[in-house]
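In response to reviewer comment 3 from the previous cycle, which asked for concrete evidence that the modeling workflow produces usable outputs, we include below a single protein chain processed end to end. The sequence was submitted unchanged, and the resulting structure tokens are shown without manual editing.
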Amino acid sequence: MHHQDILITAIDEAIRLNKSVSVSSIARDAGMQPSGLLRFYKKEQDIMTGNFFKVIEALPEKQKTRVREQLGISTNATLRSLLEVASPSELAEALRIISERYSNLRIFTESSDTPVAV
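The workflow returned the following structure tokens.
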């Protein structure tokens, strides 16, 4: 099965099984324009690789797992690889968690030991 067909089948299943899921909601969660995902869904146009993986991550867990298995994607992803395909809202959540964790640690003083964000 072609990569497009695998993802389109998963989108179909997600929509069929979850009343709150639509092409637009998946696109929004993936940080894409709904029209771009709709063209992909209708097989009118392919999507960029980064968006392809963002759409996978925006799927409900069951469909996400199935797509990963069918495409041979390891679930032992590194933090870097996960962040590279994260949606803007997921990146914001990751930064919020890091910020909370850092502020709770309070291990650095106001000296040269304090890391600087680049």
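The helical segments are 3-17, 23-30, 34-41, 49-58, 61-71, 79-84, 88-105. We consider this sufficient to address the reviewer's concern, and the full set will be provided in the supplementary archive.
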